[in-house]
């Protein structure tokens, strides 16, 4: 069970042709070349739920999701979680 450290980037994607508005969550590791696919949350509530599953408190998850909705991009630095948790949530292939 290895711990990985990096940034967590949340990007609000507006409505595009054939695609609904959604949020993309990507883990960007500090070191190494890892396959880190984006995880898509379709709604604000799904994003809050995903962040809570990643061990953020409810207050922090709501705060980061609100910032992503209003600012477009949020970067959470020094994000440290186990590789098993990241794989389980789809942030690490």
What is the residue-averaged pLDDT? 94
Total domain units: 1
Relative strand content: 25-35%
> Helical residue percent?
25-40%
SS-based structural class?
alpha+beta
The largest sheet, given as strand count, sense and whether it forms a barrel, is: 4 strands, antiparallel
Walkthrough of the structure:
- The protein is an alpha+beta fold.
- The protein has one domain (3-88).
- The chain contains 3 helices and 4 strands, in the order E-E-E-H-H-E-H.
- The chain has a 4-stranded antiparallel sheet with strand order 3-2-1-4.
- Strand 1 (3-13) and strand 2 form a beta hairpin.
- The model has no long low-confidence stretch (mean pLDDT 94).
Please provide a brief summary of the model:
The protein is built from 3 helices and 4 strands. With 93 residues, it is an alpha+beta fold.
Question: Mind sketching the topology for me?
Answer:
Blueprint: E1 3-13, E2 22-29, E3 39-41, H1 44-53, H2 58-71, E4 73-82, H3 83-88
Antiparallel strand pairs: 1-2, 1-4, 2-3
Helix pairs in contact: 1-2
């Amino acid at each position: 069970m290895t711990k990985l450290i990096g940034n967590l980037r949340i990007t609000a994607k507006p409505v595009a042709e054939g695609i609904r508005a959604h949020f993309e969550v990507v883990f960007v590791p500090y070191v190494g070349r890892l396959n880190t696919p984006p995880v898509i949350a379709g709604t604000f509530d799904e994003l809050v739920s995903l962040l809570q599953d990643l061990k953020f408190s409810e207050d922090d998850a709501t705060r980061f999701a609100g910032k992503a909705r209003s600012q477009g991009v949020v970067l959470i630095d020094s994000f440290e979680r186990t590789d098993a948790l990241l794989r389980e949530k789809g942030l690490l292939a």
